[in-house]
Amino acid sequence: MTAIPLLNTISPARSKKLSVAVIGAGAFGGWTALHLLRRGAQVTLVDAWGPGNSRASSGGETRVIRGTYGTDGIYTRMVARSLALWKENEARWNRRLYHKTGALWMVSGQDDQYEKESLRSLKDAGLEFEELSSREAAKRYPQINFDGVKWAIYEKDAGYLTARRACELVMEAFIKEGGSFRLASARRGPLEGGEMQSIELSDGSRLLADQYVFACGPWLGKLFPDVIGNLIAATRQEVFFFGVPAGETRFQEDRMPVWIDHGEKFIYGIPGNEWRGFKVADDTRGDPFDPTDGERTPSADGIKAARKYLAFRFPALKDAPLVESRVCQYENSPDHNFIIDRHPGAKNVLLVGGGSGHGFKHGPAVGERAADVVQGKPPDPFFTLSRFHK
CATH number of the domain at 17-56+164-231+335-389, please? Predict the structure, then answer.
């Protein structure tokens, strides 16, 4: 590798270890860095604002983990693998991240083919589930209005994850186990001989490594406009937390599951949220959004729509006050599938992104796959960039 004649260049110590720089400390980057470190690599993790920060797609309080994915059996298998890794590391760190509430997937649309196709994938992945009629579901969860619901899937091992806290703990473990963290923004370096030679950090230094992993969420397209560009698009998403009546237990996480209402829209929510409130969010893609400078104030229309839905599906919460809200973003790929692929002009650069609103739960499995590619395994064609150029 060509040395860069700068006094402010950070180069890994001379050793036989593979040196890797991972840019982005969110769910994808943090887990990739931790997997590589545990496999013996020398790893530096870089993030502009820190793990789980308020601008990050992996920020915020909670995320759903569930395996219902239609015909996309690859995601259901990744959920099963991620679930095992979440549990394993939760035990290792003696910190709770995974809340096993179960997940109730309500089929309220005209077409239920997606759900029917999910049943085989769930079974093949070893994820336990039940099929419930709307009458059975209503008997089990009387606090929910099942009008318009045809039937439901109840996933027993599903639930939710504490997002911001998980990002922090992954980095904390990474540092304790010998990794290095830099709080800085990064710019891609020059490409020579089919490789990237270095990356430039916002403090004026340059970081040299054998391999580079860019897991920068919605900023990936700006760093690589020629390769990613508009293949990653950020959209504005609103999340609301409503306060249940004092002493009310029916809407806590020990009394009802995470829920997904798949009908004309895809609306989901999480009860309890470790006492933060009853979470409601619409998965419909919002307007284009600037994740760096965009204002994160919820809209009056968004609050109104959330209240209307809450009054219909959870009548006892009709007048519940809004106790917290959040504006975040999805970083979408055109087909909403992840990108895990080598840069076509740099064999030592791996691009990881396209979480598309469902990526957080998969963080441990994505990191494992990314680490495999860094260590020489070919990327899975399902996640490669070539799918956009057919």
Answer: 3.50.50.60
Regarding pTM above 0.85, the answer is yes
Q: Is the Cβ–Cβ distance between 34 and 81 less than 8 Å?
A: no
Using CA atoms, how far apart are residues 359 and 366, in angstroms rounded to an integer?
9
What does the pLDDT look like over 105-127, one tens digit per residue? 999 988 999 999 999 999 999 99
- Work out the mean pLDDT of the chain and round it to a whole number: 95
The 10s digit of each residue's pLDDT in 345-389 is 999 999 999 999 999 999 999 999 999 999 999 999 999 999 998
Between strands 278-282 and 233-242, the pairing is: antiparallel
CA dihedral defined by 389, 381, 52, 298, rounded to 10 degrees? Answer: 50
Q: Which amino acid is at 289?
A: F
Contact in structure between 62 and 160 (CB atoms under 8 Å) = yes
Q: Among residues of the chain, what percentage have pLDDT more than 90?
A: 94
- Is 293 in contact with 301 (CB distance < 8 Å)? no
CATH fit for domain 100-159+233-332, picks 3.40.50.2300, 3.40.50.2000, 3.30.360.10, 3.30.9.10: 3.30.9.10
Task: Confirm if 130 and 156 have CB atoms less than 8 A apart.
Answer: yes
Measuring CA to CA, how many Å separate 233 from each of 221, 283, 293? 8, 15, 15
In one letter, which amino acid is 363? G
Q: Which residues contact 377 (CB under 8 A, 6 or more apart)?
A: none
